[in-house]
Amino acid sequence: MKFVTTTLAGLLASAALATVAAAECETTLRSSDTHPDGYPTVEGVKAMAEEVKEKTEGRICIEVFPSSQLGEEKDTIEQTQFGVIDMVRASFGTFNDIVPETQLFSLPYLFRNQEHMYKVMDGPIGDELAEAFAEHDLVALAYYDGGSRSFYNSQKPVETLEDLAGLKFRVMENDVFVDMMDALGANATPMPYGEVYSAIQTGVIDGAENNFPSYDSAGHNEVAKYFTLDQHLMVPEVVAVSTTAWDNLPPEDQEIMREAAQNSAVLERKLWAEQEAASEAKVVEAGAEIVKEIDKTPFIDAMAPVYEKYVTTPEAQDLVKRIQETE
């Protein structure tokens, strides 16, 4: 009984310490993420939380809820707008119906590479976009990397635009993606992500498009070993806080939050690059053939009708031009 009593006393002491630690936080912000614990975006926000707690001497705590614990992305964005949730990390793709300006960032080949995307998002264009988020009760603190999507198939290495002709690719149920495939001379087949493996295996489709970690984790490399690193789509992600929570913070704490978020973006991008490299090495070892040296110019030129269809206003045309000209 003495052992049990001592253990119980230890548990009670630990609980008391936890209660004291929680009490030290004058403000606790809840942050949502759909990805699992350990994922780069989750680890990024965790790093932000640590820096904020340290620099505010424990006055502000950020509690991260991964794995859709607080809901799926669209739901948690809306809850953040209403102040039910304090913070959210989500893809620009989910914001398209909420912040219309984000739609342009789903255009194919908008960014030349990841470095180009970082320069755009960390510069004046990213600042202007933050103003658009503010109009919808969201304060954009930092932009994360969600990876780049590339083509993979079961038939042959794709090295030129002509190699895509006639191939059937699964795409997300998105008009831009369907039009992109048509412009490239391939056939778009919208279908749920969970059906892709068997569809390639049975020949319903020839391939799909995604990033290295998804290509690896879903096992698609087992049925489609030809991967072409064309990076046709790079959709940024954002860490945003509710204006309700933001307005309750004094200016000095707002500055701490913003700086910590931007520092976390540097870490998240590094973690994402490491995850991509690890997945690439894994699929290559398993037999995947990676095509990297391709001339993207014909692919980009083929997008003219897609841009003509979706970039219709002078404001949108100017923004796209400024993005493309960013060095």
Automatic annotation (TrEMBL):
Q: Is the keyword Membrane assigned to this protein? A: no
Q: What is this protein called?
A: TRAP transporter substrate-binding protein
Instruction: Provide any one GO MF term from the record.
Output: carbohydrate binding
**Matching CDD domains:** PBP2_TRAP_SBP_like_3
Is Signal among the key words of this record? yes
Give the GO biological process terms.
Answer: transmembrane transport
User: Where is coiled-coil annotated?
Assistant: none
Q: Which UniProt keywords apply?
A: Periplasm, Signal
Cite the NCBIfam families for this sequence: dctP (TIGR00787), TRAP_S1 (NF037995)
Compartment(s) of residence: Periplasm
Which species is this record about? Answer: Paracoccus onubensis
Signal sequence bounds: 1-23
Q: Which GO terms describe its cellular component?
A: outer membrane-bounded periplasmic space
Principal localisation: periplasm
Q: Which domain of life is it from?
A: Bacteria
